[in-house]
């Protein structure tokens, strides 16, 4: 059935609907330039001036195929508004049926920024400890698997540093759990600033933390990192007008000599850590087979 909507809907109504639409719309003229129609702040502006730099090339390539080969596409990309705000757009490009007006194709996009922010929040909840904001056990496992793959491929070494804050229960019992949580947050911050750029520190739970050390040559290199961590944590903490001091017991296991997988290396590092505690705490040990 013939669509005769244009016979009784005036052009100014079309224009008003387009300009007030919350969705983004660009049309491509005979030169292949995408010109904005909606929303109103986008009217008359070129598409590519809005696009976030790292998303620009893939979008330009998709638009080129759309114009040259009439190949539709769907793509998520980011745009930067004049006020500097970053928005996520879910776009679809498609050729227009008739080109008598000189318009060859169109690109429509929905603002999915709210969805993306919610997605990021859920991802953070899944992979980061909510108290310390450090990676959690799940993210540590993912990074370990990636690091192990690279270590096997390029014959690199890895180390797992397992540390436990000594007598942390005494802090909770004496000052309360809120103070204990604040101390954990401050300790996590110190740990993050005491490791190298490629390494990862995560909270395993309670007062236990793990550091994944990558690409070192000798055990002495790991020992220097452990010493830096211990010295950092040994500095007094100022909390709610109180000066508190804590120490840590630390154990270390190394790939490939102590294990070939994450569970074995964590267990070996944990065993070495408890051996450190039995030495009188505030010590560290490398794992050694009995």
Automatic annotation (TrEMBL):
SUPFAM superfamilies: Nucleotide cyclase, PYP-like sensor domain (PAS domain). Residues 156-289 form the GGDEF domain. InterPro entries: DGC-Regulatory_Protein, GGDEF_dom, Nucleotide_cyclase, PAS, PAS-like_dom_sf, Rev_trsase/Diguanyl_cyclase. Pfam families: GGDEF (PF00990). It comes from the Bacteria. PANTHER family: DIGUANYLATE CYCLASE DGCT-RELATED (PTHR46663), GGDEF DOMAIN-CONTAINING PROTEIN (PTHR46663:SF2). NCBIfam families: GGDEF, sensory_box. This is Sensor domain-containing diguanylate cyclase. It comes from Paenibacillus elgii. The lineage of its organism: Bacteria, Bacillati, Bacillota, Bacilli, Bacillales.
């Amino acid at each position: 059935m013939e669509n005769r909507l244009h016979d009784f809907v005036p052009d100014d109504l079309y224009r008003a609907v387009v300009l007030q639409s919350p969705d983004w719309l660009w049309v491509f003229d005979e030169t292949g330039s995408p010109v904005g129609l909606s929303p109103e702040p986008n009217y008359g502006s070129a598409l590519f001036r809005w696009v976030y730099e790292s998303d620009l090339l893939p979008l330009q390539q998709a638009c080129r195929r759309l114009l040259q080969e009439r190949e539709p596409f769907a793509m998520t990309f980011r745009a930067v508004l004049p006020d500097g705000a970053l928005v996520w757009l879910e776009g679809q490009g498609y050729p227009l049926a008739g080109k008598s007006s000189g318009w060859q194709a169109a690109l429509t996009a929905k603002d999915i920024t709210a969805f993306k922010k919610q997605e990021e929040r859920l991802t953070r909840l899944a992979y980061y400890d909510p108290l310390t904001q450090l990676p959690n056990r799940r993210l540590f496992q993912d990074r370990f698997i990636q690091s192990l793959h690279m270590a096997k491929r390029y014959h690199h070494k890895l180390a797992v540093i397992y540390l436990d804050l000594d007598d942390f229960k005494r802090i909770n019992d004496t000052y309360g759990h809120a103070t204990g949580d604040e101390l954990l947050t401050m300790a996590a911050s110190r740990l993050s600033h005491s490791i190298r750029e490629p390494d990862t520190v995560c909270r395993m739970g309670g007062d236990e933390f793990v550091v994944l050390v990558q690409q070192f040559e000798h055990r002495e290199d790991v020992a220097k990192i452990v010493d830096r961590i211990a010295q950092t944590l040994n500095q007094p903490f100022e909390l709610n007008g109180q000066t508190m001091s804590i120490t840590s017991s630390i154990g270390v296991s190394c790939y490939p000599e102590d294990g070939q997988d994450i569970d074995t290396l964590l267990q070996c590092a944990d065993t070495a850590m408890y051996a450190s505690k039995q030495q009188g705490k505030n010590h560290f040990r490398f794992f050694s087979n009995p």
